[in-house]
Write a structure and sequence with these properties.
homodimer, 105 residues, alpha+beta, two-stranded antiparallel sheet, 2 strands, 55% helix, globular
Amino acid sequence: VPRSYEIPVCPIARTLDLIGERWTLLLLRDFHRKGPLRFQDLQEAFPAAAPNTLSQRLKDLEAHDLIEREVYSEHPPRLRYRLTRRGASLKPVLAALREWGEQNT
Amino acid sequence: VPRSYEIPVCPIARTLDLIGERWTLLLLRDFHRKGPLRFQDLQEAFPAAAPNTLSQRLKDLEAHDLIEREVYSEHPPRLRYRLTRRGASLKPVLAALREWGEQNT
């Protein structure tokens, strides 16, 4: 996915600028499927991904308002991540990938 | 996208194993939009992609039966690439990415 200071004219390219990095669509799939998740849950779900990489992907998803942090325990303080409404709106993209995979792989 | 000797159970992951690499979806978009293309056309369309990378992506797409080579001139011999029927069946995936991008970016 090209990164430039210009915003791509093509809406497909603009979408891939947000969700085209390795792991990102699989992370979004897990939030869609499982609901809110802790960092630890994601580490267990993606043992092949480096923790730094997972952490960066979560930061990027948060910066693009696709997921948000939620404090689910005050004492001790504990965080988890969940889809925003904008993140939830990616469901048709995941559905199209799933349907193609079911029929063609 | 995880690469392993096991085939992923999840159809989304299986799909991303085929089309999740950087540039691949944008290449497929161009074949959908423009029809058969020469390597030179793709180099011009993606100046930020290294020729080796483009070449590898085309090889991968061909290996997965998503595009195929076509001889369009015998003297001198000239090749171009075009979508297979299987590659054309990815249209709903591109449509979902486009629609989301139009509405959300």
